[in-house]
Design brief:
- It is a single chain.
- The protein is of the alpha/beta class and 259 residues long.
- It has two domains: 5-74, Hypothetical PUA domain-like, domain 1 (Ribosomal Protein L25, Chain P); 82-258, Alpha/beta knot, CATH 3.40.1280.
- It is built from seven helices and twelve strands.
- Strands 6, 7, 8, 9, 10, 11 and 12 form a seven-stranded parallel beta sheet that branches. A five-stranded mixed beta sheet has the order 1-3-4-5-2.
- Strand 3 and strand 4 form a beta hairpin.
- It binds S-adenosyl-L-homocysteine.
Length: 259
């Protein structure tokens, strides 16, 4: 059983001078720690604000905070390819599902894409509120699934805005329901990785997924032009729902990269 994991936003454990010290957890995390009924002597995993990894021993609660001692300083986790999902904005709980499950898989970053055929369009205020919610979803999924870091969730962007940041990526994979069946993921990924001259574990792969209504042709064109190593990819004859494709595509990319 893996240890319960906590992320610190503004505390660097290397700077702590006392053997027992309080963890400065976010209020929700204190609640979570209480709900786990952590008892003195139990161990937890802690990732601090400097992305440093520790195993800590619980000493108790003091002044409403969890007091711990460092049991072990752990080495950095093994390097892994970074996957950024450009996820076409979808209705209701679908974005939550993509972010939760993508985080469980180990996705590096999510960029909600305001697409031409997105049913939902978010104005500034609603976009900010949603982003805050998605970040909370990512954090709790990262804690629950023992991720080495919390993935970033960007504010919703237009395809054009997102494209401006893609030139340096190892690969841009455009999952398009209208791509020919011959547009295979394995070939696209290995072409891009050899063209970039990158080791698979150093790769940064962009996975673009359309909203419920799919990607418009001009969006596909813009994504294709955003990077010299962009490829159309087909997932076969079945048309997957956006929230299915948003999870299946990164899982397949990870599987290919780790092969
Ligand atoms: N345009 C479609 C549905 C889009 S599916 C329609 O309304 O009939 C939503 C997104 O999931 C697509 O834009 C694409 O990014 C991805 N997707 C679903 N099935 C796919 C497939 N067979 N191949 C590649 N991408 C797919």
């Amino acid at each position: 059983m893996s240890l319960p994991r906590f992320f610190l936003e503004d505390q660097v454990l290397a700077q702590e001078t006392e053997p027992v010290f309080p963890l400065r957890l976010a209020p929700d995390d204190v609640k979570h720690a209480r709900a786990l009924r952590l008892a003195p002597g139990e161990h937890i995993a802690v990732v601090d604000a400097a992305q440093d990894y520790f195993e800590c021993r619980v000493e108790g609660f003091s002044d409403g905070q969890l007091a711990v001692a460092i049991a072990r300083h752990e080495g950095a986790p093994k390097r892994r390819a970074r996957i950024t999902i450009l996820q076409g904005l979808a209705k209701g709980e679908k974005m939550d599902a993509v972010i939760r499950q993508g985080t469980e898989l180990g996705v590096f970053e999510f960029v909600p894409l305001a697409c031409e055929r997105s049913v939902v369009q978010l104005d500034g205020k609603r976009a900010a509120k949603k982003t805050e919610r998605w970040r909370a979803v990512a954090k709790s999924a990262a804690m629950q699934s023992g991720q080495p870091r919390i993935p970033q969730v960007q504010k919703p962007q237009t395809v054009q805005e997102a494209c401006a940041h893609l030139a340096d990526a190892t690969a841009v994979l455009i999952f398009w329901e209208e791509a020919p069946a011959s547009a295979k993921l394995a070939a696209a990924l290995s072409d891009a990785i050899s063209a970039a001259g990158t080791a698979p574990e150093e790769a940064h792969v962009i996975v673009a997924i359309g909203p419920e209504g799919g990607l418009a042709e001009e969006e596909v064109r813009a994504l294709s032009a955003s990077n010299a190593r962009s490829h159309l990819v087909s997932l076969g004859d079945s048309i997957l729902r956006t929230e299915t494709a948003g999870v299946v595509a990164p899982a397949l990319v990870m599987h290919e990269l780790e092969r």
